[in-house]
Amino acid sequence: MMNPSWRDITLIIGVKELMERFRDAERFIAYCKECGCYGRSWGCPPFLFDAWEYLSGWEVAEITATVITVPDGTPVSEAADFITPQRARLDKWLLGREKETGGRAFSFVGNCLYCPGQECTRLCGRPCRHPDKVRPSLEAFGFDITAILADLFHLPLLWGSDGLLPPHLTLVTALFRK
Fold first, then answer.
1. Cα–Cα distance for residue pair 131/27, rounded to 1 Å
2. Residue 120 burial by CB count (10 A; 0-12/13-18/19+): exposed, middle or buried?
3. Is 91 left (phi over 0), alpha (psi -120 to 50) or beta?
4. Which residue of 57, 96, 130, 174 is most buried, as measured by CB atoms within 10 A?
């Protein structure tokens, strides 16, 4: 595989405005319930705390859109080859920003990077093995990523078709802080 190009675009928005404009928890948590990870991963809902209360405790959100260029004709089966290295890079960066600011990171939807090949401890009622690293996605808190990309970044969220990836993949992460 060739080394894909990527770029990060970051903007800052008030958490109250972000929640008012882009959070529809009922709608997006319903989508989460259709996913096989719902209730089976510590990064996925349902959470053991009130999400609205948790989110409203923050003042500012630094939202980052990472746009990864994908070569024409790349099969969907190769998506992880493009996404996983960026997830690892972004997780490291977000966790560093979290420590610097006292904020809280929101990472990615999907499988956990920290227990590959192991069953999540949530399934057997034990605490997360890596609570210092695992962070939920904005989607897991009911945020509309498609609308955030369109309205704030003026970027479309593209989907593959005919078994091929789109021209670019976009990952959305955030750091909430005071």
1. 27
2. buried
3. alpha
4. 174
pLDDT tens by residue, 109-141: 667 788 877 888 999 999 999 999 999 999 999
Tokens of 140: 């897991």
Phi, psi of 176 (to 5 degrees): -95, 135
At a CB cut-off of 8 Å and minimum separation 6, what does 165 contact? 70, 74, 75, 76, 78, 79, 82
Burial class of residue 148 (count of CB atoms within 10 Å of its CB; 0-12, 13-18, 19+): buried
Q: Are 108 and 171 in contact (CB under 8 A)?
A: yes
User: Domain extents for the chain?
Assistant: 6-177
Reported as type and span, the H/E element at residue 31 is helix 25-33
For 1-20, the pLDDT digits (tens) are 456 799 999 999 999 999 99
- Nearest of 142, 172, 146 to residue 25 by alpha carbon: 142
